[in-house]
């Protein structure tokens, strides 16, 4: 005699709930009353009175605190990074701008190199007031010389970098107190009067905010670093945007010519400088153009997983290096066709004709002498 197998049919109706949709780990269990018509081991619930056995309240995580809701979302995203790269200025820090012709275009490149050297030395030797005056001078000169779309981008980025360095070094130089233990007991224990202060009104601590403090040492270090960073970047920008690579190579060769008598590879240095100034422009263009190509495809970044976004960026970097290597190969072929065989001293380099004028050269030299004199006097006159 064959015993019929028991059939168990489990049918459950789940109604949508706002709490369950927000938290998938919460389940609602309903009790079904027994039906005498249906066999004992067969259950079906097409119609029954729902009775909740488990009741849950909303978790506190569903309503974040007020300060969390005030924080901005999506500050840094892949699309914003690529758009900022693609929307960068087409005139980077090393590209020569031929028009409009300004005062610095007519200055001799050797005087410009002397200016670059002096602007590196002055921030480290001058007073803090002189440093901020030098920053103001370079900012005004950049606004006067460079086109608006160039100086707005360059001054903004350089000022942001210098400001970050100033805050980090100014507030962090003396924020951690030194653990110093005196070798001698205090004067009160030895029966001696306390040592009076040397200066009235002098305070080493200038500003204090919790554990962070701004002291005279921190202000000196921060101002020197921020001014040096700003002057190096902005003076290099002014020199490279108003001077052709051939003129810079000619000026550097003129200064390094005495070193050739002691065996220095002057010809190799000049050729390397000339190729570097030509090649950096191609790197800036490739970074911007490839980023523009990715942005123009309108990728839905919200639908991509994290690893897919990382893969897009790796593809972006790989494409940049591939294009750069292609440009390097083309430059090598062009130099080989023009007769270069590896010996820089025997290869003739044609520099562009000098476009300097006597009046701008005299004005630049007089301004340079005045700046050096003011920096030397600031160490003795300014307090």
From TrEMBL:
Keywords: Membrane, Transmembrane, Transmembrane helix. It is a multi-pass membrane protein. One of its GO terms (cellular component) is chloroplast. The chain crosses the membrane at residues 128-147, 159-180, 259-280. Pfam families: CbiQ. It is found in: Membrane. It comes from the Eukaryota. Its main location: membrane. This is Uncharacterized protein. It comes from Mikania micrantha.
């Amino acid at each position: 005699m064959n015993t019929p197998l028991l059939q168990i049919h489990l049918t459950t109706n789940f109604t949508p709930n706002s709490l369950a949709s927000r938290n998938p780990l919460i389940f609602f269990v309903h009790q079904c009353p027994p039906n005498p018509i249906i066999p004992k081991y067969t259950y079906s619930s097409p119609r029954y009175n729902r009775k909740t056995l488990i009741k849950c309240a909303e978790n506190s995580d569903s309503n974040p605190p007020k300060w969390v809701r005030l924080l901005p979302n999506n500050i840094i995203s892949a699309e914003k990074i690529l758009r900022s790269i693609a929307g960068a200025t087409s005139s980077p820090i090393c590209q020569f701008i031929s028009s409009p012709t300004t005062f610095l275009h007519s200055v001799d490149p050797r005087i410009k190199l002397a200016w670059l050297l002096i602007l590196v030395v002055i921030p480290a030797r001058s007073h803090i007031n002189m440093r901020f005056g030098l920053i103001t001078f370079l900012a005004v000169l950049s606004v006067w010389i460079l086109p608006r779309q160039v100086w707005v981008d360059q001054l903004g980025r350089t000022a942001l970098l210098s400001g970050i360095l100033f805050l980090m070094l100014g507030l962090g130089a003396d924020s951690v107190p030194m653990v110093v233990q005196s070798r001698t007991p205090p004067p009160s224990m030895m029966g001696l009067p306390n040592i009076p202060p040397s200066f009235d009104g002098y305070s080493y601590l200038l500003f204090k905010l919790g554990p962070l403090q701004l002291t005279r040492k921190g202000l000196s270090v921060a101002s020197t670093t921020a001014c040096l960073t700003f002057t190096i970047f902005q003076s290099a920008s002014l020199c490279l945007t108003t001077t052709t690579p051939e003129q810079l190579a000619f000026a550097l060769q003129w200064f390094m010519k005495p070193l050739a008598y002691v065996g220095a590879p002057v010809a190799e240095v000049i050729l390397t400088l000339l190729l570097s100034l030509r090649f950096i422009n191609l790197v800036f263009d490739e970074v911007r153009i490839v980023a523009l190509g990715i942005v123009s495809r309108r990728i839905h970044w919200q639908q991509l997983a994290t690893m897919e976004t990382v893969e897009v960026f790796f593809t972006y970097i790989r494409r940049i290096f591939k294009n750069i290597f292609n440009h390097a190969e083309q430059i090598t072929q062009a130099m080989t066709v023009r007769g270069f065989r590896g010996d820089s001293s025997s290869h003739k380099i044609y520099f562009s004709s000098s476009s300097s004028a006597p009046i701008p050269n005299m004005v630049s030299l007089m301004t340079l002498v005045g700046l050096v004199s003011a920096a030397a006097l600031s160490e003795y006159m300014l307090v």
